[in-house]
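Exam revision sheet. Question 4 asks you to relate a sequence to its structure. Input first:
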Amino acid sequence: MSASQQRRTGLARQSVGLLAVVLVCCGAMAARLVWLQLVQGAHFKALADENRIRLMPRNPMRGRLLDRHGLVLATNRLTYRLYIQPQQVSEASWPSLRDRLSRVVGISAIELDRRRREGANPEGYRIALAGPLRSDQVLRFREQAETLRGAEVDMDVLRAYPHGALAAHVLGYTSGITEEEYRRLEPDGYRIRDRIGRSGVEQVFESTLRGEWGGQQVEVNAAGQVQRVLGDKPAEAGRDLRLTLDLALQKAAEQALNGVRKGAIVAMDPQTGAIRAMASRPTFNPNVFSDGPSTLQWANLNRPEAPLLNRALRGFPPASTFKIVTTIAALESGIYQSTSKVLTTKSFCYAGLCYSDHGAHGQVGFPFALAVSSNTFYYRVGLRLGPQQLFKAARRMGYGLPTGIELDDEESAGLMGDPAWKLRALGEPWTPVDSITSAIGQGALQVTPLQMARLYAAVANGGWLVTPHLVERPNTQRQWIGLKPATLQVLRQGLRMVVTEGTARLLNDPKLPAVAGKTGTAEDPPRPDHAWFGGYAPAGKPTLVIIAFGENSGGYGGTVAAPMVKALMTTWFRTER
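Answer key, structure tokens:
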């Protein structure tokens, strides 16, 4: 082969090699394009859209809480908060951003460091650094926003309680959702910025009040500037909830409790069970949870007096108010008649123990015994009745059981310390002495103010056990307990005599309609006594039942609790309702 032929053959081989290389490269490029365009096209388009399209969420307005007349008890307020996006703020860039933010919002760098550290989360959600911001702080941020990349000021909707601590235990409060709650509730439409009801009506009716998030979908350029709106979904506000509370009466209840350090008041419609006022002392201001309680505020909320505890739903010894139950047990069992009389003495001795009384009146009937709150009368009645009849009557009147109010998670069932309980809890058998003390409400008994309101309502309405409720409902839920007419007559006569000639004459006021009720003073050694009063008015056709309770207030039911009831009745009956 000649030299020229060899050169031509070599060039041909080089051309084939180059062509092969070109084909391989083109094939690789084509394969890559197929992979990017066809196989991974949807994925990369979504990533591009995420960079190009932004969703700007809109907070839903939480439904308002209104009183029975439509007056606002809880509403919403708009505010602004400062956030940082962790993905956009590295450890190296944080100190510079922190110092600029400190000058803008007037919060120390140390405090911003702490809030960033405490707000850190593995999901990379934005961290709240400050808020609510004043208008001048928001304005300064807007002016310097270009130099504060990674930080943003966003609008927030906070719960507002215009009357402060009024009805706090009924209304409850809201606070920010936790990470664990968010993971659990995200399928239900919750967002990391959501606030959730923590107690009271806010918690029970969370699904009704919360509303639904909305948002605006916008297209942005490389600089993050909005180019156009692609879609808009308005946030859906939660539903308003009309409660049974009466604002004026609730205010009167809160003011009446100013005379005791701890206590509770319940006012209820005896015909329907609608709660007109429910107050507990000490109380708290739910607004502190909207902004987030400070360390000092949190310590105050958790002090031993337990301001967050709703004492209207907790059990306490009922003392002489329980004598109504003993009367019902005596008359309904047939062991005593409505005309029966029992001896009253200065003291009563049994099994080597003597129990004193504050008066000796000889042989008296049930109405007079209720009026003067004779202990020796009911010692003898309780001893003859025995525990079976006594606790049968108590449970018949709703004691020892939840009332059915919406705040069921917070409600105590109380305590009925019957023979079975004593054997189980103390390992001791029942004795006649237990019957003696239980008959006057001083045994192992605990009754909530709300349970007591049901009892007095049943006497007032003619024998119906109503279901207490805080939200207006179309149908009244009542249970007929079938008290004998003679039993009701004795109870009503005795409760009226308590006011006209007995231990609660303070309420025998011509400015008020006829009031009927019963005082109680419960021993709680070594602490001061508890004071009770339960009653209703007008005695002939009752429209309101009120229970007032002073925990370890000292004094008597007639001197501590009865004045509270008078204050509420004065407010309620001042005008026609």
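Marking note for examiners. Residues 282 and 559 are 20 Å apart (CA to CA).
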